[in-house]
Amino acid sequence: MSISRINPEGLHVTPGYHHVTVVEAGRTAYLAGQCPLGPDGALVGAGNFYTQVDQVAANTLAALAAVGAGPEHVVRTVIYVVSGEQAVLSLVWDRFLGSPLAPAFTTASTLLGVARLGFTGQLIELDVTAALPG
């Protein structure tokens, strides 16, 4: 399996992600939206973007590991943030880039501000697609 990440000429420079990700062949995994819930199912870090990003990153790493993948196998991410403010969206992006999940965000990525997510107090959700190794 081969993964190529490309920034074509004529498109804007990105802050770390790539405009296009191509997977030559193989199996893929589509993770459910990863939420800031602990193992007990309770929301972690109500009102705290940093804590919720950290929990979402940990949950995503666990889900990837369950299928024999790591962040380097991620080919698409969509980050949902309950905020319309550029500063908050940037804070969330930077926190993910500082996490152990950071290699996942060098691929095709989208960052969206939204009005609400599924759980009361939830501020972050992450949608991930990975190309499985071997």
What percent of residues are in strands? Answer: 25-35%
Provide the spatial order of strands within the biggest beta sheet.
3-6-4-5
Order of H and E elements? EEEHEHEE
- Portion in helices: 10-25%
- What's the CATH superfamily, by name? RutC-like
Number of individual domains: 1
User: Which architecture per CATH?
Assistant: 2-Layer Sandwich
- Give the CA-based shape: globular
Terminal Cα separation, in Å?
7 Å
Largest sheet: 4 strands, mixed
Note the total helix count: 2
Q: Which fold name is given in CATH as the topology?
A: 60s Ribosomal Protein L30, Chain: A
CATH classification, class level: Alpha Beta
Mean pLDDT: 93
Task: Give start-end ranges of low-pLDDT stretches.
Answer: none
Structural class: alpha+beta
- Quantity of strands, as a count: 6
Radius of gyration: 15 Å
Protein name: RidA family protein
EC number: 3.5.-.-
Pfam families: Ribonuc_L-PSP
InterPro entries: RutC-like_sf, YjgF/YER057c/UK114
Write a brief structural summary.
The protein has helices at 49-66, 86-97; strands spanning 3-6, 20-23, 28-34, 74-81, 108-113, 124-131.
Describe this structure in words.
The chain is an alpha+beta fold and 134 residues long. It has helices at 49-66, 86-97, and strands at residues 3-6, 20-23, 28-34, 74-81, 108-113, 124-131. The strands form 2 sheets. The chain has a 4-stranded mixed β-sheet. The protein is globular.
